[in-house]
Specification:
By secondary structure, this protein is an alpha/beta fold. It is 45% helix and 18% strand. The protein has helices at 2-16, 46-61, 79-88, 121-130, 132-139, 179-187, 200-206, 216-222, 247-252, 255-289, 300-307, 309-315, 319-330; strands at residues 33-39, 66-71, 93-96, 144-154, 156-159, 173-175, 191-193, 211-214, 230-233, 238-246, 293-296. The strands form 3 sheets. Strands 2-1-3-10-4 form a 5-stranded mixed beta sheet, sandwiched between helices. Strand 6 (173-175), helix 6 (179-187) and strand 7 form a beta-alpha-beta unit. Helix 2 runs antiparallel to helix 10 (255-289) and helix 8 (216-222) crosses helix 10 (255-289). It starts with a helix and ends with a helix. Belongs to the bacterial solute-binding protein 7 family. Residues 1-21 form the signal peptide.
Length: 332
């Protein structure tokens, strides 16, 4: 009798013991991770749409083990504030221009946005991919891992009065995002000033600045052309963003989830490249339809020549700057 009771007790005990998911520790539910991502750019722009795609892919491929969300524009503060949040762990990832993001600590990252040194967007995207490891190495001491460099397209100048030649830019107050842009404007005879991306519309509207510069897609997504009606095709700079992950958070992920995040970042970058090429053309046509006059430079060679001394100036800053420039320009 005692033996049968013991046997029954053992059967009940076995049946009532929970079965744990493969790969999890006994007695613990499978862990989930939050991925809060942010960009200071609009959700309707191609960088914003790429981020939306990234979040969708992470949520799908992680089978719910990562809960990814995204914020756009100035919802969480300006770009500098968002970068600081990612550095301290209040965000797990920020989408930022390297020069005005972690470039706070690694200023040579501003070289990604330098006038007249890249042939075209195809070369530029090869540079972004080829420099990913170098960027990660440089930002790692500040708590970041870099992935998924994305071109924002070739930039042109949006102004309140027409610019068709170099002399037209003289003494204009132009917004630029970092010190390289300010140097460029000085070499071109204008007065450069920095301000956050989300302050530009009001600055144009109130006359604080006479103009700004960005790609057609970026300009159109923020409606800057509503308050400045002249766009000059200058192709002076191509700009970019990277995904900057909080290193501690990324390293806390199991290896399979790290792979999910990397794959999602690569897929989002490939998606953004396709839609950006198309959106640049569409945005330019929409601006024309909405009353923007498109100007072509009559003296582009003079613009290129005026900026040539800048490269020697930036090479002379330090060995770190010179080494980074060499690596950047070696990728053709």
């Amino acid at each position: 009798m005692k033996k049968s009771m013991i046997l029954m007790f053992m059967i009940v005990l076995v049946l009532s013991t929970p079965i744990f998911a493969q790969g999890t520790k006994e007695g613990a539910a499978e862990q989930t991770y939050k991925l809060r991502a942010s960009t200071n750019l609009a959700s309707t722009g191609t960088i914003g749409r790429g981020l939306t795609k990234f979040v969708e892919i992470v949520n799908e491929k992680s089978d719910g083990r990562i809960e990814a969300t995204a914020n756009y524009g100035a919802e969480l503060g300006n770009q500098s504030e968002q970068v600081e949040m990612a550095r301290t762990g209040s965000l797990e990832m920020v989408v930022a221009a390297p020069g005005t993001g972690p470039g706070t600590w690694v200023p040579q990252l501003m070289m990604f946005e330098f006038p007249f040194i890249f042939k075209d967007n195809d070369q530029y995207r090869r540079v972004l991919k080829g420099m990913e490891g170098e960027v990660s190495k440089l930002v790692q001491p500040y708590g970041f891992i870099a992935m998924s460099g994305q071109s924002q397209g070739s930039r042109h100048m949006l102004t309140k009065t027409p610019v068709t030649k170099l002399e037209d830019l003289a003494n204009m107050k132009m917004r630029g995002p970092n010190a390289i842009y300010i140097s460029m404007f000085e070499y071109l005879g204008a007065a450069g000033t920095t301000m956050d991306w989300n302050e530009i519309y009001t600055a144009l509207q109130t006359g604080v600045v006479d103009g700004m510069e960005a790609s057609p897609s970026m300009i159109y997504s923020m409606r800057f052309h509503d308050v400045a009606k002249n766009l000059t095709i200058t192709d002076h700079i191509i700009a970019c963003t990277y995904y900057f992950f909080n290193e501690e958070w990324f390293n806390s992920l199991p290896s399979d989830l790290q792979a999910v995040v990397r794959e999602a970042a690569d897929e989002a970058a490939a998606y953004q490249a396709v839609i950006d090429d198309e959106d640049q053309k569409v945005s330019l046509e929409k601006m024309k339809e909405e009353g923007v006059t498109i100007h072509t430079l009559t003296d582009r060679d003079k613009w290129v020549e005026a900026c040539k001394p800048m490269l020697a100036e930036y090479r002379a800053k330090s060995d770190g700057w010179n080494d980074f420039i060499d690596k950047l320009l070696a990728i053709q």
